[in-house]
Structure formats: C-alpha cells, structure tokens
User: Fold these one by one.
Assistant:
Number 1:
Amino acid sequence: MLTIYLILKKKERLLFLRPLSPDALKESIITLGASFIKLAQVLATRADFFTPPYLEQLKSLHDDLPPMNQKDFEVVYKNAFETLIFEHFDNEPIASASIGQVHIGYIAGQKVAVKLRRLGIKERVKADISIISFFNRLFRPLFSHYTKNSIEAVITEFAKMILEEVSMNRELQNLQKFSAMYAKSGIRFPVPLVDYCSDDALVMSFEEGFRFDDKERLLSENIDFREIIGKLISFYTEQMLLKGYFHADPHPGNLLINPQGELILLDFGMVKTIPNDTRIAIIELIKAANERDCELYISASKRLGTIAYEAPKAELALLSERMFDIFGNENLSSENMQKLAFEVLNSTKDLPFKLPQEAIYILRVSAIIEGLGTTYIENFNGIKDILPILQENIPKALGAQEGLLEMLIKEFKSIPLTIRDIKSSLKQISDGELKVELSLNQLEWLTKEVKDYFKPILLSFTLLLGGIFCLLYDPNFKELALVLFSLGVARLIFK
C-alpha cells in the first residue's frame, strides 16, 4: 500500500521508507492472493500512473501468474472430466490468472479453450473477505459517516462479485446471456461447449488474437488504435446506457484483437446489471460533463449517489468548473493533469462524497478504459477523448434510435396516460391525500441527522444516570457521581 501511495504521489520516499521494486511489488500482491490481485489489476492499465518497469510487472497479474501445481491440477481435471473427452490436451496452461488457468484442448478436431478453476479458490477468497471485513470493523470508528458507508459498499460489492466469479457455472450463464443480448454488436465472443462444462471447468471455442495493450503488434498489423478504442467505448456505451447489462472486467488480458481488426471479449465471470434510475443518472452526467453544465452535473451525481443529498451546491459547482477546466486543457501533460486534479480533490476532502455499490464497477470500467487509452494516445483523458464518443450515443440511450415520425407517434400515444396522471394528482390534492415520497439519499440524510442529534443526548443521560447510580450504590462515591453528573450536564448544554 505504501509503495502504491508513493508511486501515485510521485514521491521517492516517505521518511526513510522507499517503495518496493517492481518485482517485489508483484510478488507481494501474488502472496496476498486472488482478492488482492483483482484489486491490483485495475492499476495495471494506468500508464499515466506507473513507469514502464512497474507496468510490465503489474500487467502480468492479468494472465501470467504461477499456475497450479501438478497435484492440484490433477485433482481439478479429474473432478471436471470424469472420462477422457479430449483428443489432445496441453497440461501447460497458456494463461494463468487469480481464479483459474486456461489450457488448449482438441475435441472432435476443434481447438478449444479450457478454463479450470483453481483448487480451493472459493475457500481462500472467503478467507480474504473475512480478513478485509475484520480490518474494516477495526478501523470503522476512525472514518466519517460517508467514508464508512463507501468502504462498506466497496467491500460488500467486492465480496459478492468475487464469490460469483469463482463459479464456472455462473460464468457459463453470463457468457450465454451476454452473447445472445449482443449478437449484433460486431464484437466476437467465445462459443461455449455446454455439454463439457461444469462448476470446475468452462470449455469454449478458442479465439485467436493478441492482447489489446500489445502496442507493437497493433502497429505492425496497421490497426488504427483510435478506431479500436472508439469501438470499445461505443460498445460499452451500448452495454451501460442502452441495455444496462455490462462486462465489468475489460482488462487487457480479457480484450483481444485479431489481424482483421475485430475486437474479442473474454472472461465473463464479472457481468453486472445497472438499474434504470442509475442508467438515467449516468446519461445526465455525460451530457452535463460534455456541455459543462455544473448544475445538471451536481443533480445527476446526487441521483447516482456519489454526492450526498445535503452537499452544498456552491462549493460543488466551483469544484466541477475547476475539474472541467483541468481535463479540458489540451496543453497540460497527463502527469500535470493528474497533479492538479489531486490538488483540487484534496482541497474538498470534507465534502460529503460517497461511493454507492452501483457506481463501483462503472468507475472501475471507466478507469480501465481510460488507462488503455493512455497506452497509445498522449494526454488521453476521459473528458477530452471519451465524452464526445459517449455524447454521440446519448440520443440512442434516450430511445431516439427511431426516426422522427416514430418518436412523435410514440409521444402522442403517451398523452392520454399523462392526462390521466394529472387528473389523479389533482384529485389527491383536493381530497387531501397527496403523498410525498423521499428518495433514498434524502432518507439517508434524515437518518444521519437524527442520529447526530440524539447521540449526544443519549450520552448525556447515560452520564447523568451513571452519577445517580453511584450515589444510590454507595454515598462515598459522591465525588465520582458529581463528576459524571457535571459531564452529563455539560454534554447536554454543549451538544
């Protein structure tokens, strides 16, 4: 953690402590296990954060980890395939990641990819979650209300995600649903051989291609990276804004490009659904950022849940303007851009920012895609390079893929329903039955305010009752009773 902190802050040391070497950092992460490898994989895409030696080691965390030993491999293979089904099977894996490893096999003349789940990985992941949860409980009192909730959301969602990811049956279901939903997207997906799959193994077609971040190969094949990154962003726009069902782990080991320039998506262990209200909030955020509309940006952020309901609009508007100026400045280098952004965020650390569960994977995917962009495009950033592509897709996300006439007909048909709703509301007002609904953000704020109000009162009465109890228990404790009683009164007055 200290190493990553020093690297992000571009510092050579903290007091007498220096960061780990690239090799040592990688080995430490591997030693910590699958859960920590998953967290580190996001960092492996950030060419703007890490120097090439660190990047090279972190990139290997995607699919170049130590494989299972022979004994574990034999146990998993036997559990997955009770009878020999392969004409040929390579025992040496071509890729080895935190959850499983991939082998090449041949069935009826077809080359297939076989993903085997690591032996005992589910139990190790559960142990990791217990450790992380323990430290969260231990340090929870040190954090503010919103920081506590954000950390809790991250841990809860991370635990749920990684437990789903260790199931090959779950990944098979995700792959089938995803392939059907995005069959016309122009993106290639592996085809599963369902009869040979189990909870320990996923057998699928072998897709030929090279890694998304293989810059030399990409250039040698004369493939336009801007076109590829545009295709990737457009595809994720379709997933997150149109369909609300998206692949949440697009790291370079899961993204291949073939010589024809086709994008191939692998590994469907982490697939998420975005609720409709969250999807609409994201659309508004994109529109606001592209048009530098601070008021819409703030209201959309509050609906998304990343900013608390009671956050001051004036300070947030100033923050938004400053961030728009930084990320819209094409003359700034990537490093200076980050430095300025960190300084601005650091100056607003007391504002009530939050990280709800729905936003965790959206931010993760955004960070990975932006990181991939920095590999090829100098000063690549989300505001300048990604937002215009997203903006082009907003009309489709809002249902404007039909022609103008179809849209007008659709709106015209909804008029009777709108009139009925207005009549119903007017009747409720006249009958005195109008109801007001509070949003989850408002309820959270009210809950927090009530707790903050009654907490000192409860402590005061506890101290007062403690003083009375001391007097009743033993009159000789009158000095202690007086102290407790005085503290209770003082706490009540100066709450």
Number 2:
Amino acid sequence: MKKRVIFLIITSIFLSFNLHAQKKLTLQDAIKLALDRNPAINAGESQVKVAKAKNMQAKSSFFPKASVMSKYLYTNNLPGMYPLEGVSVPVMNNGTPTGDEVILHPMAPFPNLDGDVLTFDFNVVYPIYAGNKRKNAVELTKDLDSYYNKNLNETKASLVDKVKTAYYNYITITEVIKVYNMALEQLNKHLELAQKAYEQGVRSEFDVLNFKSKIAGFKSKIIELEGKKQIVETALKNLIALPENDTVTFTGSINDIYKTEVYQSTVGLQSIQANNYKIQSLKSMMNLLDKKEKMEHAAKLPVLFAFGNYHFFHGRDFPPFDKAWRNGYAVGLGLKINLFDGNLSKGKVKEVKANYEKLQNYEEGLKLKLRFDYEKVTENINSLKAKLDAEKDNLTVAQKAYDIVKVGYKSGVNTNIELNDAQLNVIKIETSMLNIKKEILIQRAYLEYLKGQIQ
C-alpha cells in the first residue's frame, strides 16, 4: 500500500512538472520572455547599474573626506638626553665677570632609547573650488547613464526584431507544413481512386506509380520542413533563454498577424533618424565627451581646499615627559596649483576633441545608412505587396483550374499528370503567398527596429 502511495505521489509530481514545462507562447509572450531573460539584456542592465554607481562616486566629491590613522609601535631609537663635552662659562656678578669660570655640560638628544609609541590622527579635507571639475564629473556620469540606457534600448530593439523574424519563420513553416499535409491527404485520395480505376482496367499502372512517387516526394518535403522548423524553434528558445528540456509551442497564424500588422501607420525616415537608438547613443556619447573636455581643462586650474586635523600621541617626547599624553588640532586652507604637467592635460583635451569629431562623422554616416536602409525596405515592402496582389489573382485561377481538372480526372477526361500539375500549382501559390506575407512582416519589423520601437 505504501509503495502504491509513493508511486502515485511521484507520478503526480512528474505530471505537474511536465504540464508546467509545456508552454504555448504567442509572439508577445516570446518578446516579453526574451526581454526578461536574454543574457544580452541582463548585461546591458548591469551596464546601467555601473553608470549609476559612477554617478554616486562623482557626487561623493561634494562631501568632505574624513580619515583616521593610528599607529602603535615599539622602537629602539627614541631620543634620550645625554651630556656634551664641558664648556667653560664665566661667573658673572651683576653683569660683571668675577674672573672665575665654571664647567657646564649641556644636554643633547641621541636616538638610542627603547620605548613604545602610539599616535592617532583624525583628518578632514574639503575642496572648496576645483574649477567645476566635480560638477562636470557628475554631469558626465549622467550622460554615461543615458548612453548605457540607449545601448540597452538598442539591444532590446534588435532582440525584438530577431524574435519577430524567427517567430514569423516558425509559424510560416508550420502553416506550409499544414498545406503540404492537406495536399498529401488529397494525393492519398487520388491514389485510392487510381488504384480502383487500375483494378477496373480504366487506368494504367503508371497512374498508380506516379501518385506513389508524388506522395513520397511530399513526405520527403515535409520531413525537410520539420527539420527547418526544429532549427527555427531552437533559435527562438535560445532568444527567450528557455531551458533545453522545456517543451514549447509557438502559436499564431501568419494570415491573422498580417491582417493586424499590415494596416499600421508607415514608419517615416525622419522618425527613424530622430528615434534610432544608435543615433541617440552617439549623441549621448558626444555629450559625455563634451563634459570630459571641460574636466580636462579644469585639471589646469588651481584647487582650493579646507582641512582640519585632530591628533593625540604618547611616547614621542624627550624624557622625562615621554610617558605623557599630548593632543591638539590644526585647521586651515590649502591651495594646489599645477604649474606644468608636461602637456599631459593639453594632449588629453586634443584627444577628446578628436574623438568628438570622429563621432560626428559616424553620426553623418549612420544617417546616410539609415536613409538607404529605409528606402530599401520600403521598396521591398511595396514590391512584395504588388507580388502578393498578383498571387491572389493567380490563386483564384489556379484553384478553379484544379477543381475543373479534378472533375475531369474522375470522369476520365484528364490524366493524373494534369491533376498533379494543377494541384502542385495551387500549393505553390499558397506557399508563395505565405512566404510573401512573412517577408512583408519581417521587413516591417526591421523598420520598427530602425525607428527604435520595442514591442
């Protein structure tokens, strides 16, 4: 009985885990998971945290710096007082020499005593003026935060574009497989008719073999498509960082998504050049370099600071006071002036200016590339839409031709080759339309990426 209960518990846990592991994801589900889990996004968010930490560091320069230093030591060279060689000193009486002299032995310090020493210092330093270096340092870290955020948004937009591309490919392959399976089902029915007709002597054995050959070809194609579907599914799972053993199904219809997406407003070139995250990242980096140049200029300016010190010590005085405690304080102002640094600051300023000019050139080049990409994508979309309209007309004609041939084949008017050709023509157009819709959606997703849309 106990074994049965344990078995039921283990089975229920396994089933609940299996049900939990199996996921059905829409496009929006996949995008949300990718933005939440993808390692590249996590790395970008860590970069933003780095910028915030640097901002905290820069702001710390507006606060006084306090430090404590204490030392306890034992040394064998503390100063002791020892007599020097005697010196004759005249004896005076009311300022008049008496003619007598005495020998005096003055004392002088020599470092040969052993003893312990304890010192304690509490120091406070506050810069009053630093040529706006601190202010620009804080502003620089804000621009760094903006730069990392723009980079993160660029990574997110690029990731969304990749998820959409993989997702559109996945559901398109899924629907193409359905079309091929439906065609395979029709071919099997045609094979049955051909076999019956062959048994009745109406059709030749060639008809039967021909259908079997077509069926084998379709099965081979479906296996090939299933392999491609598996590859795309793996790519999607990697993008959303799903565990390898998770079972997932991506749901949706390319036709339904096309109907929803195709009527959205067109993304314009000006909108792309204004909102593209790469452009915004370059602008943030240029602002950052502007603050850095001001900081390098400030390095040549004087720094005024205030300081304070409180101290106490024991064991550093001459005997007989070496065991006494001493304490005191000191306050004041300090001025630091950099007279010459070997043109180091000047070289750094020139380097910053050169990098700024380089980014300006990058920005101009990127705008040209965005214009080219925009025109190329919009032209592709217009061309694909025209092709799709033509394929719709072709499908109507092909479907009608297939229906006519199918009736003619049953009555013996048309051959199996004509039937197969008519059916293949319908399949070809249907799969072509699915792929065209997929390509239009992929091109639109790329336009949204160029604009910097994250959705």
Number 3:
Amino acid sequence: MFLSPNPSIQVYKIMVLIAAFFMLLPLPIMQYVGEEGLMAIKSYEMFLSGDWFHTVALGMSFPHPPLWHWPVILISQVIGWEHVDIAIRLVSVISTWLTAGAVAYMAIWLFPKEDSSIGWLAALIYLSLGEVCFWYGWLGYIDACFALFIFSSIATLWRAFEDKSARWLCLALILISIAFLIKNITAYALFFAAGLVLITRLKRWSLLKNPFFIILTCLAMSVPSLWQSFISSGADINTAGSSVDDIIRKFIGFDLFRVLNHWLTYPFIFIFRSLPLALFFIWLWLRHKQRFQWDEPLTTLALILLVCFLPFWISPGGGARYLIPLYGFVALLLTGLLLQLNQLQLKQSIRLIALLLMLKLPYSLLILPYVKDHMPERDIKAVARELIAISHDAPLRTQSDVANGLSIAAYIDVWQQDNAPIHWYNGKEKGVYILAEEETDDFGELVKTWRLRGSLVYLYKQD
C-alpha cells in the first residue's frame, strides 16, 4: 500500500502548504459572520476589564470559559484591536493547522507500515475536508480550537491505552480539561464515550480497578466543579450548569416533523460536508463495487465516530457545527481507506483534492464575500459608520443580541476605543441612543431603521 513514487511526498507537502495558506484567504476580506461579533466583544471586554478568568459581553456575565479568548487578546495586542476580526479567525486557523499536525502524527502511529508520506497525506485530507476547508476551519468561532483539544485528547488517550502509559494518560486528561476551559462540558462526554470504545476494543478493563487511573480521572472530571467553586464563585452564572441546560434544550421543544427531518438528514449532512473523499469513496463503492478491509485501527475509528456522533444525531437541536471535533477521526478513517486504493484511484483522489483547493480561491475571494457582504443590504460596516455619525459622542446602548446587532457593536467598540464599550440598555438611562432588533415604543424616538441581512435594525434615542 506504499504511495511513492507517484504521487510523491513532495506533492503532498506542496498541497498541504497550499491548503494551509488558503485557510487565511477570507480573514481580511469578510465582515463578521454569525456569532463572530460576540466572540470579538467578549475578547475586547475581557481585555478592558483586566480579568482573564471571567467572560463578559455587553457589560454582562457570560456563561463561557475564558481560555479561547486569551490568544485572541494576545494577537489583537500585536496587530491592533481594530483588527480583532482577523485575530479571532487567526486563532481558528492556527487551531486547524495544529489539528492537521495532530492528525498527521496519529496517522504515522496508526499506520506504521506505510512510508513517510502517510503523515502529509493525512494532514492534506484533514485540511481538504469541506467543513474544515470552506467554513469552520477559519471562521472566528470557538469550534476549531475546541476540536483541536478534543481530538488531541482522545488520540492521546488511545496512545495511553495502547502503550499502557501513565504519561500519555496524564496528557490526555490535561488536554480534555483544557477543552472544557475553551467551551463547555460536552468535551467530557465525547472523551468518555471514545474512552469506552477504546477500553472495549483494547481490552483495558483492568484500568477501572487501577487506583492511579481512577484518581487521575476523578481529578479531570472535577475540573468543572473546581472551576465554578474557586474561579467563578462570584459570578452570576454557573458555567457548567448553563452548559447542561443548553444540552437539555437540544432535546426538548421540537415538533415531530423537525425530529424526523433531523434524524433522516443529519448523517447525510455529515457525509456531504466530508467531501470530496467521502463522496468519492461512496461513488467507488456504488459504481465500481469497491470493497474495503476494516482492520483493527479502521474499525476502532469507525466506532469512535459512531459513538460520538449518536448524541448529536438523536438530538433534534444538534447542529452541524457540533460535529467539528469528529473531523480529525474522519480524516484518519479516510486516510486508512485511501491506502487500499490502486494507483489510478489514488491519483483520482489527489486530483479531487487539488480541484477542491483550486475552488477555494474564487470561493474565498469572490463568491463568499459577495454572498455574505456585497449583496444589497448586507454591509454591516456601513451601518456601524452611519450609527457613529448619528450618535456623535452620545452614549450608545444596545438591546440586540442577534448577529447583526452584535456585529455592529463589535465594530463600533474597536473603532472608538477612547469610549466605553457598548453595554446592554437597562431601561433606565436617559440621553442615550439604543440599538434594537425589534420595533417598540419603550425606547423613545425612532431615529432610523436599516434593513440588514434580511432583518430590520432600529436606532432609538431616549431623551
């Protein structure tokens, strides 16, 4: 199953470097997308407060751990807070690069009989996965960084169980604790679900009787409680508890049609967003009756994916973004399957990846900016500039916690760094301008209305 001499390791190296560089293309071009404005606001307000352990947005406590914001703050200090939109995306891109490196290292360990190109091939496959390449690999959300630590922790746990190594186990537990401090306790759910698969496959049930293993695991599991008790004890929001509440909401309040639609379409969405290779393998299987051998590593990878996929599949509120931590295992699985192809099929696979990377160029520089920003009524920056001109030096408040309002506030905050950041309107202040997402008589005089990205944005003046 050796890959050399054609395609060569040099080809893989060049394609990996191109794929990695292309992750940077949308960073300076795109305006805020979705929740990116909220990520920027939290980072900026954390920096202004000098409190690196509690997240605040619009002057209010927010139920997210703080760790993701630390590199954003450091990068923004270097490139300037007016470029915080680039900073939040750089954290995602760097996380994606590091995940590709972890995938490469894991591939070398899982497939030791292959030649030196296997690591580069696995990294290339990860960087070319549709979900990673076109969207969450660069988008300024927490998910790419969350995925890095979840994948690395499970991969390290696999190594710990296989080698019966205390050092690898300690590292795995540290990594999953960092994952919690980046986002929420769902990290532990994925970690222990994958751990159950690994214990079963590797027959390491004796570890459950090992005092050292039990103590270390309990310490890792206690991190959310310790964090709440010693760091967030004075906060108004329970970080772990709010995560549990959010998880519960993913399972309730949905009608039967929504539930059935989710159950039927969710696996296909996951497979489609793993293009191009996942679709190519399905085509080979259907059209050419390609049969794949499922050896020990591939079967374990498939089971880890299935067990970690099931909770999001069952939950009708499980969005596609929650699957980002699984794409590292998808890349490893696809790498193992790719090694079973003949030379012609291998060349076709690499050409498909090359075609995808070529599409990334016009997608990033033309298609995505046009769809998101340059179509009529989509210019968030123009609305933010006009709002500044209208309000002058008067205090500006907000009653908009949707994407448009958050994006406007994020731009104004860093464009007017001499002013206090925009805070949530408490309903009592006078002489302030108020940004709102709904029309109301409670905020005084309606100054102006904008149609922005399919919704209306209102500006009021409360005298």
Number 4:
Amino acid sequence: MRVSGELIPIVMFMCTAVTIIGFPVARAFARRMEREPSQPSVPPDVTARLERMEQALDSIAIEVERISEGQRFTTKLLSERSTVPSTGVSRPQQ
C-alpha cells in the first residue's frame, strides 16, 4: 500500500492537535481523581443509624442463642425421658 505525500503532514497535524488538546484534559482529569476521597463520605446521621442497627442485631443474636439453648435443653430432657426404661414398679395411686 502506497501512502501519498499529502497524508503524512495531515496525520502529523492531527497527532499534534490531539496531543495539545488531550494532555491538559488528561492532567485535569488526573487532578480531579486525586482530590476526590478514596471512600465516599457518609453523613453522621446515617452512621449513627447504622450503629443503632448493629446494636439491635447483636441483641437479637443473643436472644436467638438463648432460645436455641432452651430448645436444646428441652429436646435433651424429652429424649432422656423417652429412653428411661420402666422399672416395673407401679406408682402409688392417689
């Protein structure tokens, strides 16, 4: 493929124009990215609300653990009650 003599200066002019315009735009974009905080700022009322929710979830988790312990204890008692062999001694009737 043969390149005409007119194409070389046009391409050079386009590359120069893109560099002259693109370099300041790229620098401005980089500065803007550096100025922005890495983590988004959270309003204090949202932070306080999240802390209250965390405390509520912790208390719910404690209550659920207490309920499950009670259920395990009840299940253990019921399983021991059903496995106790009868001694053949009758209870006195009232």
